[in-house]
Design a protein that fits this description.
By secondary structure, this protein is of the alpha/beta class. Helix content is 33%, strand content 21%. The chain contains 8 helices and 12 strands. The longest helix is centred in the last third of the chain and has 23 residues, at 218-240. The protein is globular and about 60 Å long.
């Protein structure tokens, strides 16, 4: 896979498996790699691609969240660059990793897939350098800002801001190639607020790299924030009116296909405080 330079010394490679993005940011101290793909074997391929880039040695890895397609390549980078290579993540992502990895292993054990063997053979390497709200990764002549925007796609999302070139590496808090993914660890009621934080980190000239798909601009993020806000407020309205969960998807108009929102609605109902829910009318 070829890395494309989207800003000075910021490269992105878009891998076919899961259409996932891996980003590389260069500084005088070396390279920071943001996300490592979905298995040790896939991670080794990313290592080879980074080396072909010829921009320096990797001195840090950043995981944007705990899902396997972004972290299961960690072992490959430790094998290539040493056991002391720091892997940065939000503290909640470390806590979520074991459960997330177990869900993935069970799914690949139950379904025959061309990638099953390599996923099941992967050693899960957890991040070892964590923060709670914000942190700075020093690359010498530039500093990367690691920011937890709040709970969204997961409870441990982070975004990477490269301020000197106005780039934000947003992970799966922003999605381009498919609608936002509401998994069993997502926070649909909080997600719009996390996008508000990302918007505060951007300008009209920003390049925003999503977890999956092509780079986007601030307008795209604003539009996705508005749509996710509609999802959250629709869930809130239905719960306040006492609409039962099993009727919610057919009780209102949704900005995405209802089948895509089944988990979002269930998670939203679970997350609303009791004071915002009415008993269903009998």
């Amino acid at each position: 896979m070829t890395f494309t330079e989207v800003a000075e010394r910021v490269w992105v490679a878009r891998y076919e498996w899961f259409d996932v993005n891996v980003s590389v940011v260069g500084g005088e101290r070396g390279l920071a790699v943001v996300d490592t793909h979905g298995s040790t074997a896939a991670g080794r391929a990313v290592v080879d691609d980074v080396r072909r880039l010829g921009a320096g040695e990797v001195v840090a890895v950043v995981n944007t969240h705990a899902h396997f397609d972004h972290v299961f390549g960690n072992a490959a980078f430790r094998q290539a660059y040493g056991d002391t290579l720091p892997i940065h993540a939000h503290e909640a992502a470390v806590g979520e990793l074991a459960a997330s990895a177990q869900r993935v292993r069970e799914a690949y054990e139950q379904h025959d897939d061309a990638r099953s063997a390599e996923v099941l053979a992967t050693e899960v390497v957890a991040p070892d350098t964590t923060f709670s709200s914000a942190s700075v990764l020093d690359l010498g002549d530039r500093a990367l800002e690691l920011v937890h925007p709040g709970r969204a796609h997961t409870g441990g999302d982070l975004v990477v801001r490269v301020p000197d070139v106005d780039v934000v590496l947003a992970g799966d808090v922003v999605e381009e190639s498919a609608p936002p993914s509401f998994g069993p660890d997502s926070w649909p009621m909080d997600w719009p607020l996390a996008l508000d934080v990302i918007l505060q980190l951007t300008t009209p000239r920003s390049v925003v790299v999503p977890g999956h798909g092509a780079p986007v601009d601030r307008d795209f993020v604003e539009q996705q924030r508005g749509t996710l806000g509609i999802v959250a407020e629709t869930i809130r309205d239905l719960a306040e009116r006492g609409v039962p969960l099993d009727q919610a998807l057919t009780a209102s108009d949704w900005p995405y296909e209802p089948a895509w929102l089944e988990t979002a609605v269930r998670r939203g109902y679970e997350q609303l405080p009791r004071s915002q829910k009415r008993l269903p009318l009998v």
